[in-house]
Amino acid sequence: MDQKPNQTEVQLNLTTDKTLNIVFSPMDAQGNTVVYVPNQSTGTPVPASDAFAIKLENIGTEPIVLKKGIPVSDSLAPNSGYFLMAVLLPASIQSTEMGSVQAGSDWGIKSFTDDGNYLMLAPVADIQISVQNSISIQFAGFASDPHQIPQEMSLNLYNLDSSIIGDGNYTTNAVILQVPKPGNQDLNLIAQPEEGSSVVNITPTGASQANTNEINFYLTNDDPLASAIPSTPNVSYIRISFDTGNEIGDLTSVTDAANAIVSILRDYGSKFTLSVEKIQNIPTWKFTASTDIFLNGGSNDRIEFQLSNLISHLEEGIANVYLEFFNIPGFNDGYKTFSLQKVLPSAVISSLSLSPNRIIYGNQIIIAWQTQGASYCTLQCSSIGSIVDASGNTIQNYQQFPANETGLTVTPVLPQLPASTSPVSFSITLTAFTEDGRGGSPEERAVQIEPVSCSLSASISGPILSGTPVTLKWISNYAFSLEIDQGIGTVQANGSIQLIPVNTTTYTLTATGLYGPITSQVTVVVSQVKINSFTPSATSGVLGEKITLTWDVVFATIIDINGQKLTSDSGSIELPLTVSSNLFTLTCQGGEGPAIQSITIPATDAVQITNMNGYIQGGGVYINPVSAIFNWATANATSCTVTANGNIVSNATSGSTNAAAGTGDNPQTVTFVVTAEGPGGPISQSYAV
Fold it and tell me: Against a cut of 0.70, is the pTM above it?
């Protein structure tokens, strides 16, 4: 910056509604009022020509009288009845530094701290400012630390008519500078943030967790070939500050600024000592040189700083960071500034994973994610399906999940798809949202759902004899469930089982999964048992006579005649005639069996019932009774009993009998039973009339 500000004036509130104009001096090239303080490195005091002064100009048409009084606090000033001027000093001037300030013999002056740090002035005698004339108040004794960043300074005038002073408020921007040393040069430095370090993520109101920022920036010579810049140990220093308050142009509030940390990184960290100095409770970070080198010079040499633990609850906007440097031998004081952009943080997905990445359709997957700046997340599946949670509930696109998740269990669900052998890529998209509902860039991950396949085989497909052991073997890929019918039930993905089929059986393996259910079948053919022939040696005989029975069968496992087990598939056996009608039954167990064939051979000398017949007799008139007439005959019978509906009606071995059979309009069935005793007997037969 310039070695010395231009010695011009700052005119304030020059408006038609005020006849008392205020002029501050001196002023720099940027229009800021300058308050000089003694040079810290040389001790040079502030010359009178550079002293801070306030000029009161009467630009009206009537004289202005400033009545004498004594300085009082601003709370008492409106009721004092005399002229008072309150000078509200820049915030960097501490209360302990105001006591030495003087304003000449014509003015009484006193410092107050009840409403900020301010000086109150009152004339020691009445002062009249004639029309188009002015008076000046020259101050001396300011001794605060320099502060090159413009700060607000204002005047409040009391007890003059509003036509003279309006509302009595006059404001200027002021800088506090050391008396420049003749011959010093401007120091051309560059201050700027590291790449990607110029954004401050603000914390929205009501957020459960604050966004903590870390800003890296540096100070360097604008000429990479410049030689080293010296410093005076314990005198040369850098002060870092930033706009602090509650306005949109502030970086953070006073409360949050108190938690911020500023440090020097790497080599220069050991060449400066840090002290935190508060200006009206606002922290600044003062780094004082501890060696005789400020910057080493050369290409890319720089002092690197880090502003950490920075939290801001303010609105979005731009705010400045200031780096002031003081007392550099041979150079004027100066400062550099750079801007930071305050923004609402975007929600960023830092990691997203699906596990496993290849699955059987119907199996679960685990989703895990990490985010930054997010308040919640949503999940959306690919357009060909949906996802359900561990309870079987469909996850909706708008359903909210935590900002971070270590393991969410879900199951992909697909619609019915045309049969195929190709896998399906099932994608899930995660979107992270800030607390105010702004979605960040979504991230997509996919799992591959493999198509189900299965195969069933038998160790022997046949034809086999019933009861022959058979081993079923199956393999499958990516089956969610496997089941074999015929009572076998659920099975593992691959395996075998031994069975003994009795009949020809088809076994079906059913597998569920992608494109399923699908099936695989195998049929085990069991040879069908068959009787080729079963013949007797005679078609009749006498009691006690043996009849030769001959058989020929195939594929039988068990053979018997009337319960008598036979040991070969073909052969003959003699069996006696023991009753009047002899029934011989060949039974063969085996595939599709049993196979059965019977032969009846009568014994001609045994008791026999040779004839039974009957009819209904009577009627005529429908109410007349009718009778059932029954005729029978036997051979070789020694005795006989005939019953009609259970009642004995005759004991003759042959003959005819009758029994009541209802009326003509309601005939009744009569059942006759003939029981004959004799050789090979008894025998019984029934006949219904």
Answer: no
